[in-house]
Structures are given as structure tokens and as C-alpha cells.
Amino acid sequence: MSSLTDSATSGNFDDLVIGAGMAGLAVAALLAASGRRVLVLEAHDVPGGNAHTFAIRQFRFCAQVHYIFGCGDGQTIDRLLQHLGIADQVPFVRLDPEGYDQIVVAGERVRVPNGLARYREQLLRRYPDARAPILGYFEKVVAIADELDRSDDLPRAVTPLSILRSGFRFPHMLRYARSTLDDVYDSLRMPQRLRAILAGQAGDYLLPPRDVSFLLHAGLVRAYDRGAYYPKNHFYSLVDAISDRIRKEPGCAVLLDHEVDRINVEGGRVTGVSTKDGRAFTARRYVSNVDPRMTAKLAGEGNLQRDAAKLRYKYSASTVTMYLGVEGLDLRDHGFGSFNVWHYPHDDINQIYDDQLQRHDLTNPWLFLSTPTLHSDAPGLCPPGHQILEAATCADYSYFAELKRRDRRAYNVEKRKVREAMLDVIEAKYVPHLRDHLSLRILGTPTTNAYFCRAPEGNAYGAALDPAHVTLGRQPYHTSLENLWMANATAGMPSVAGALGAGMQLYRELTGVAV
């Protein structure tokens, strides 16, 4: 790491980034590579935000990320790494293109291949009586996805003239801007089983078909359709490569365990930040990679009043994640491989989400099952002879937070109940007697995510991904303070590619240089 002299800490930085999540790391690395002196302050003891990796005994787990898109030639992540000169340091492996995700609904398994036309034809063969709704669905997804490919041309400000012009170039995006996935299903008279299968990746946005933005759903389907990837040397290699790219530049640094507790404002400008350990840092320009509402609290009441409209949003749901170390069996013998499995107990995904988020019933949950040690054979995640299985589902933050506040023992009892319920499903449906082969079992709740990722209400994706929050305004922005910008999952899009893309977009706006 670059050494920090007394003069450096007292105000010689060009840019100061609060938070080392993926958007913050991206804009910081780009600015550092352009010759600016950049400081990144991170509250956690590791960088990466939701993509950070933690160690327990001889095991390493990525906190919240399991697979990503945007890694192909010329795509978002590839462009960033190429621009930074570190693409060779972070090779990716592609998940099985014949079925990178496998959807299991009430025991029926459907492989999701790369190639929307291939997926469409597969479903037409399997469900010939649903020909019209299947064709209609893919026609709409492709039309929106094609327009999203031109999204750099979308207007940044909404005016009557910009809406008129957009109506000609982006007719499908305009038409479906306020539609949910269920709205589209209803218009097509989509059968119930196909509703579940086509929404099988719903955990990637943590909303059921009734609530998720159809634009967001179509964009995600297209993004993964072009390739689902995993870093060959695991997610910490991606985070470390970008962090080290910052550190190697003269006068630049990434300081961990430095939680900003105050953004000092005077005369409409940020004059510096202070950290919980009593240190003070200044720069000419500031970027917050922290949640916008948290940023506003750090800056003090009233200093971001003119940004009030951008600070009104609902958070996405949170997750329960189980991290397992497996010994003495090969998960490939039980239906796992270079793909993920989405398990649903029945085909009413709206009902499943209601059961889990509103009734707090996780006795028979939907599960996302991922096997990172089968995505890449590179060492570094577990001891020899072991494999890793990760399982996740949605959960209500307020329920777990209140339990933890009121009665820590009751909270721990509930954690164990949820863990055992998830293991019951896996043993019954996928890996019999799995418990006999576990050398490690860890469960993280929504409060875990809130603490370690500094995610308000334990949210996984920033602002919720419903039509009200998937708009032209969801992008990095210049706040009403003269020298403060926002770039994060809410001021931008979630996912690793989305967050890195937000950092790249902000860099372009600050410098005029496109990556």
C-alpha cells in the first residue's frame, strides 16, 4: 500500500471515495489510473461491499455474490479491466452455456441455456399448448433488451421533448416502464407453471413477479443470456486486483477499518470527513459509495435538502445465506455442477414470497443453491478433499432485527430453525444425509448483512427493483453539494456489473472519458 504522509492525510488528495464497494472501487481505480491522487476509506476490514470475501477456519466465502455477467469481450467488466490493464490478472470461467441456471419447480427441472432463441424453442417443445404466450414473452424480452443495448442514448433529464424523442427510439421501454412481470404474464395469459419457470431467477432481484419491474427482469435475462461467469481465482481476486490497482499509483491508498462518521459541510461544499477513530481527511472532490440516505445522515440534517426526492425510496428485501463446507462426497453426484440451482416448492412464487417476507414462514423456502468449488477448480476456498455449497433465500429484516434487539436467545433459536429447515429441503430433494458430511455450517441473517456490508435494513440490492425505482433517475449523480457525487447500488444499478458500471459512468461524467 502507498504510504500516507502527514501532508497527504491533511488535504493533498484530489478525490476521496467513501466506501470500497464495487462502484467506489471502480471510479477510484479509474481516477487513480488517470493520474489523480485518490483515497478510499472503507469501514470493513476487507473491500468489496457485498462482493467481499470472509474467512472462517480454512474456508473462504464470498458474502453475497455467486455469479456475474458482463465479463465477455467488450462487455462492462471486461472493458473496465482492460482499461485498468489488469484483465490478465482476473480470468473468468463461463458457467455451463447449456444450462447456467437450472430451475426446479415442484420437482420439475428446466435448464436455462445461453441463447434466448434456444431457450424459447426448448420451452415450446416442452409446453406446446403454451405456444402463443411463450412466443409473446420472448418477443417482448428481446425487444426491450435490444433497446437497453442503446441505453447510453437515453436522455438524462425527463422533459416533454425528451419523452417525445424517446418514444420513437425506445417505444417498448416507454410502453413497459410501469409494468411488472405479472402485468406482462397477465396480458399473455401465461400458464402458472411457466410463470414460475420464467421468473425462476427472481432471487437475482428479490421480488416476485407481482412486484418486479419488467424492464429490470428483461435486462437481467438478456445480461445473463450473454454469459454467466465466475472469476477463475474466485471473487476476492477481482476485488483485490482493482484495489491493488489503486494502491500502486503514487499517493493513492485504500484504508480499511476507517469508518466515516461525519461528512463536514460548509458553504454548500464538503470540507472534509472524519472517521470513528478520530482521523480527518480532506480532498478537492468526494464520491460516496455509501447508501444515499446514510450519506445524507453523515452530512447532517438539512445539507442535502435539495436532494430530498432522490432520498425517498424503499429498500430491497434481504437474504438468509447458509455457507457449508462439505467433506466426503462429490456434489456432482447429486445434480450440481458448473451452474446454479433455483429450487421452488410450488409454482406460485408470489405466494412463496408472501409466506417468507410477510408471514415470516421459512419452513419450506425457495432456495438458490450454488457450488463455487464446481465453478472453478482453482484452490483457495477450502481444504483439499472439501467442496463448498452455498444456499440463500429471502427474509424480512425487521423480523430478525426485532428478535435480536428484544431477545438474543430467541434470535439464535430462530437462526437454527431456519438453518435446519434449509438443510431439510436440501437433504430431501438433492443431497441425502448431507448433515453427515458437513465440516462447517454458518448462517448469515439480514442483520448480518446490515452489519458487515453496512446495508440499511439488510438490503441486498439498494432501492427495491420495482417499477417505481427502476427509472432514468437510477444512476450516479452530482448532489446539491458542490463537490459531492453519489455512486452505489441505488445511485446506479445493483449486481457486480451494475455497480462497476455505475463507477465507470461516474468517471465518464467527471472526466469526459468513456471506458
Give an overview in words:
This protein starts with 5 loop residues before the first helix and ends with a helix. The longest helix is centred in the last third of the chain and has 22 residues, at 408-429. The chain has helices at residues 6-9, 22-33, 76-84, 116-126, 131-148, 160-169, 171-175, 181-188, 192-198, 214-225, 235-247, 292-299, 349-358, 372-375, 397-406, 408-429, 446-452, 496-511, and strands spanning 13-18, 38-41, 53-56, 59-62, 92-94, 101-105, 108-112, 229-231, 253-255, 260-266, 269-275, 280-281, 283-288, 318-327, 340-344, 367-370, 386-395, 438-444, 477-478, 484-486. By secondary structure, the chain is α/β, with parallel strands linked by helices. α2 runs parallel beside α18. It folds into three domains: 6-48 and 232-313 and 475-511, FAD/NAD(P)-binding domain; 113-226, no CATH class; 317-456, Polyamine Oxidase, Chain A, domain 2. 36% of the residues lie in helices and 19% in strands. It is globular and about 65 Å long. The protein has a seven-stranded mixed β-sheet with strand order 7-6-15-16-17-14-18, sandwiched between helices. A six-stranded mixed β-sheet has the order 9-2-1-13-20-19. A three-stranded antiparallel β-sheet has the order 10-11-12. The protein is built from 18 helices and 20 strands.
